[in-house]
Amino acid sequence: MINIMKKKWFLLAILCLMAGVFVSCKHKGIENKNIVIAVIPKADNEIFDQVKESANQAAKELGITLTWEAPTSNNAKKQKELIENLIHYKVDGILISCNDEETLKEPINEASKAGIKVATFDSDCPVSQRIFYVGTDNEKAGKIGGETMLKLFEKSGKKPNQILVLSGGANAVNMVQRLKGFRSAIDAEKICGVLYSFEMPDYGKDLLSFKLTGNNQINGVQTIWSVPILGGLDSVPALSRFMKKGGISVFFDVSKPLLRYVKDNPNCALLKQDFKSMGYNGVKNLYNAITGKAFEPEILYDVTVIDQSNAEEELKKL
Q: Does domain 138-273+306-317 have CATH number 3.30.9.10?
């Protein structure tokens, strides 16, 4: 009787072990296919095209599902609605560029409570329970922008008189940090105003046009958000006229029209962000967090300054 009982327990133990191995193998085989990561940009514009492309590349390499969730309008309320929908659909991870940290703090925390790993790229939300940020070191980038502008003034033999700044959202962390960095390099009395376009390109064009047309004392323009001019300076005639008269400008982000313009004009420069790395490494780092692997709590990139000396080289990369 005792021997029979021992055999039963032994067989039961073997069956349990086999079941455990089967479940483990099954999990390893399907875990990647079941993982869904959603990426939420600030807006659906060409600035984020490289993020989308590289994020999809990372997802393909990892064998997971990636969904691109661009808001229909450029405000944090739409991003909030997207997060709430993603909580309902129980995605595994969210990678978001935040339009407004205060508005998005609560929905990010709600997603975290629901077991979703949330990380930020491009524009952070440090007051939330997001697990990491990947993107530009924005305060440092803003300072580099100011220093680049001063070098352009020195090279042209001029001095800054009044400098106009074009920003995106007033409460977007990346805009706040860039402006802080810029102000650390430029004397406060030289900054004649900050224009907030709230991520609306046409509104940004109108603001620039109005200010440049109405103030002849402005001799410097710094765009810490450059979407309105990515199509080229001809899209903002007032800015084009300003540059032809010898105005000094430093633009965030690159496009072929802007690179061509910088190649032919010595009185301006571009600051290039590493959007490809943001998307690619953002997804891979978030995947590691979702699967219980070690992940980086912060990944920062420097901007690259592009002027006449390297604009041709950068054009070949696009």
A: no
